[in-house]
Amino acid sequence: EVQLVESGGGMVQAGGSVRLSCAASGFDFPEYDMAWVRQAPGKGPEYISAISAHGGTTYYKPTMGGRVTISRDNTKNTLVLLMNSLKPEDTALYYCARVRSWRLKTTDYTGQGTQVTVSS
Q1: pLDDT(8) > 90
Q2: CB neighbour class for 42 (10 Å; exposed up to 12, middle 13-18, buried from 19)
Q3: How many C-beta atoms lie closer than 10 Å to residue 20's C-beta?
Q4: Percentages helix, strand, coil for the chain, rounded to the nearest 5?
Q5: pLDDT at 54 (0 to 100)
Q6: Exposed, middle or buried: residue 21 (CB in 10 Å: 0-12, 13-18, 19+)?
Q7: What pLDDT, on a 0 to 100 scale, did the predictor assign at position 57?
């Protein structure tokens, strides 16, 4: 069974930083591209970053403005997202996701999410 468990969210002041982690199990993690997707209240899912299976290629949604860094540790089956210069509009539920299609930016599994709330 594929399991993705996110952690690291919380309440952060605007301008601050947060480090989100995802522990993956139930599949061969090093063989899969992975992504972070977020969903703000009242909005649809937003695919914000992805990393290839071996970590050599990354994608960042342009509107993130260089404020995020995605990484992975294939020896620990862990995915990480660093976000800095946080803004209130970054408030969302952040999901770790297994990528189904890199080109189409679709996913096939997500975790339960970790909430990030940015106060102004």
Answers
A1: yes
A2: exposed
A3: 24
A4: 10, 55, 40
A5: 95
A6: middle
A7: 97
Q: How far apart are CA 113 and CA 9, in angstroms?
A: 9
Model confidence over 35-71: pLDDT tens digits? 999 999 999 999 999 999 999 999 999 999 889 999 9
For 98-120, how does the pLDDT look when each residue is reduced to its tens digit (9 = 90+)?
999 999 999 999 999 999 999 99
Nearest to 111 by CA among 98, 92, 101: 98
Per the CB < 8 A criterion, the answer to whether 81 and 92 are in contact is no
Q: How far apart (Å, rounded) are the C-alpha atoms in residues 64 and 105?
A: 16
Of 33, 2, 48, which Cα lies nearest the Cα of 102? 33
- CA geometry: angle at 104 spanning 54 and 57, to 5°? 25
Instruction: With beta carbons less than 8 A apart as the criterion, state whether 33 and 41 touch.
Output: no
Place of tokens 């139930």: 26
CA distance 72 to 78: 6
